[in-house]
Design a protein that fits this description.
Distance between the termini: 29 Å
Radius of gyration: 14 Å
Largest sheet: 2 strands, antiparallel
Strand content: under 5%
Strand order of the largest sheet: 1-2
Number of strands: 2
Number of helices: 4
Shape: globular
Structural class: mainly alpha
Helix content: over 70%
């Protein structure tokens, strides 16, 4: 799991569209799809139902996304702490 994957998944959960999430992340739709699929394969948890329009989050995906939001917030706090240490 990478920080980028977390960002991609959270944007996809928020926007419910691969094309919109890819645009928000400044990557291609195929890259976003591949990174989300890689995360799902690594964890063994399907996060999104891709058959629906807009896409929906699976019940298991809802649980995982809660954790990813928490991890993302910790990354933000880390960034703030580092900036503080650097005097920014």
């Amino acid at each position: 799991m990478t920080r980028s994957q977390i960002e991609y998944i959270l944007n996809l959960a928020k926007l419910r569209s691969f094309s919109k999430a890819a645009e928000a992340c400044f990557i291609t739709q195929s890259t976003l799809s591949a990174m989300v699929a890689k995360f799902e394969k690594q964890t063994g948890v399907v996060l999104f139902d891709r058959k629906t329009k807009p896409i929906t989050i699976t019940p298991n995906g809802e649980e995982v996304i809660k954790y990813l939001k928490s991890i993302n917030r910790e990354f933000q706090l880390l960034d703030e702490g580092i900036n503080h240490i650097k005097g920014y």
